[in-house]
Specification:
The chain has 353 residues and is mainly alpha-helical. 72% of the residues lie in helices and 0% in strands.
Length: 353
């Protein structure tokens, strides 16, 4: 069988699988940002499957160029997807749309003008360097956020999904750069298509093995009020550990310490990290370790902001005393929990006094 025929068959199978995946994701989790971005990423990946051709330097048709632009812009969607997947408080902003439009527009200009008029090799390298940059951002997001995830099943599958997609995307971009303008490269295209269908199939299987609500939760993470340990059907051993944990939180205020991690708390409690992770998730109702810490930090900050004797204390001082390292994360966390900024909260408490 000719290599070109094998390549077309593999691409068709991948596109079909991606379209089914996109429809399933949107129908099942379209109300959740991470679910919508996952569906958009699947559609963009279908465009990539159709347009990706390693080593070719032939002119791009006007009809083909928008699909290539959509495929290139998909690296921005991939980065946004990883952010939403690992940070349930993440929200899309106008600047994210601008970034996607800029990357897609640059790709379109590359296809229609820069490559034909100047250097096709330079155009291919430039676009794929952009892709590598966003893939690197996605990997950094994954590595930074993964340790704070408290849901065991999704920790494993999230890392697999992001790593597999990033590995394929990175290798694909590198192949494009190395073989830019180098001819048809039929074998490379077949291997690339085979790798893509394998990655998409593996991701689809991995997603079927985990509860969709774990990957794309539609409910707020915050389950209990700071300082409370409302526990249902807790064993005596677990209750003892919860009491010890809450003493560290409420009496010693360990959340104030620099770089406090779930590992340091587990060491203090003399238990394995996985057990503490499971305890905070399943018994206290938190899905993310940073949310657990921030709720207690915000509780302390709220008390300080409402205290008339601290009316002249700067907000940044209160934030850092509570354990935040800078004002930006404090403001975002405070507003996410209370619905108002720290300054507005202080003013409301002062006027109510």
């Amino acid at each position: 069988m000719p290599l070109a025929t094998i390549d077309i068959a593999l691409r068709a199978a991948t596109v079909a699988l991606l379209l089914v995946l996109a429809i399933s994701l949107y129908r099942g989790f379209g109300t959740v940002l991470a679910g919508r971005l996952a569906a958009a990423f699947a559609l963009g990946s279908a465009a990539h499957t159709v347009t990706s051709s390693i080593g070719t330097a032939s002119p791009v048709s006007v009809a083909h160029a928008p699909l290539i632009a959509l495929s290139t812009g998909n690296v921005v969607i991939f980065w946004l997807f990883t952010r939403a997947l690992f940070d349930e408080a993440f929200r899309l902003r106008w600047r994210h749309g601008v970034m996607w439009a800029a990357v897609a527009s640059f790709s379109l200009v590359n296809c229609l003008w820069l490559a034909p008029l100047y250097s096709a090799r330079f155009a291919i390298i430039a676009v794929n360097l952009i892709a590598l940059g966003f893939i690197a951002l996605a990997l950094v997001q994954t590595l930074a956020s993964w340790p704070t995830d408290l849901v065991e099943g999704r920790r494993r599958v999230r890392v697999f999904i992001v790593s597999a997609a990033a590995l394929y995307g990175g290798l694909n971009a590198i192949l494009h750069i190395l073989m830019a303008g180098g001819g048809g490269a039929d074998i490379a295209n077949v291997l690339n298509s085979a790798a893509l269908v394998a990655v998409v199939g593996s991701i689809a299987i991995a997603m079927m093995r985990v509860d969709g609500a774990d990957l794309f939760p539609a409910v707020p993470e915050i389950k209990i009020n700071a300082g409370e340990a409302t526990v249902i059907e807790t064993s005596a051993a677990d209750q003892k550990l919860i009491d010890a944990l809450m003493r560290l939180i409420n009496d010693e205020r360990v959340y104030r310490h620099d770089n406090v991690t779930i590992g340091t708390l587990a060491t203090r409690l003399a238990i394995p990290e996985y057990r503490l992770r499971r305890l905070i998730n399943q018994r206290l109702g938190y899905r993310n370790f940073n949310v657990f810490l921030n709720e207690h930090r915000i509780a302390e900050a709220k008390a300080a902001l409402a205290d008339p004797s601290q009316a002249e204390v700067p907000v940044i001082t209160i934030a850092m005393d509570a354990g935040f390292q800078s004002l930006g994360p404090f403001n975002r966390a405070f507003k996410a929990i209370t619905g108002v900024t720290p300054t507005e909260y202080r003013r409301l408490k002062a006027s109510a006094a």
